[in-house]
Amino acid sequence: MIDLHCHMLPGIDDGARDLPTALKMAELAVADGITLTACTPHIYPGLFENTHTGIRQAVEAFRRELAAADIPLELTYGADIQVVPELVSGLQNKVLPTLHGSRYFLFEPPHHVSLPRLGDLIHNTLLSGYVPVITHPERLSYIESDYPRFLAAAEQGAWIQLTGGSLLGRFGRRVQQVAERFLRDGVTHLLASDGHNLSNRTPELAEARAAAAAIVGEDEARRLVQERPAAVIANLNPAAVAPVPAHQPGWQPAGSSASARRGWFSRLFS
Fold it and tell me: Is the Lipoprotein keyword given for this protein (predicted)?
């Protein structure tokens, strides 16, 4: 599996507090079946003043520590980017990092304040050649009232990323129900750990992947944690990797095979 959203870098934000914690998180990820993790610390003006250069240097240092500890986890990086006035120019000037240097970047909406011009922001980034990956919208305090706006954002071309723990009820039943709704509506592109620690927000995905499979089937669950994240790393056109709603004609539940989807991965990378 590939985890495209994780706060594993030590001492850089509210994720791993130190190197021993970060190394244990990496061990957890490997044991869970994750082969590649994107280190995505917050860029949040006034709170986490991380920079592209600083994140890259932190990843390079952490790679050396992983090698010394013989932990076989590959790393790449991006950032969990809050709304900033210079968002588009920051991406264009490489001040704000995208995921693995691709057209995709993590975009974190405010947790408690609705964005009045979300559609305009999505439009401007897409027009500039970037694909915003909206992180954990299911956890926003206002998501019930704004849910149609996030569906519209996905229709515009934004990607939706759910937190694995949300599907497991780790943020409460309300968040779990919204996460399940995003899956059923066929607008979820990625499942990521958003791992922060070794207790309640671990960098693991296998259990959440199984929970997603119970809703959208094994094929789509695999795409959430393997094929679609690989498409981001390869910087592929987002039109080739649209999610599948659970209520789509021909959808089959977990444990079944869907012949219409056979060969999807080879077509994606052809």
Answer: no
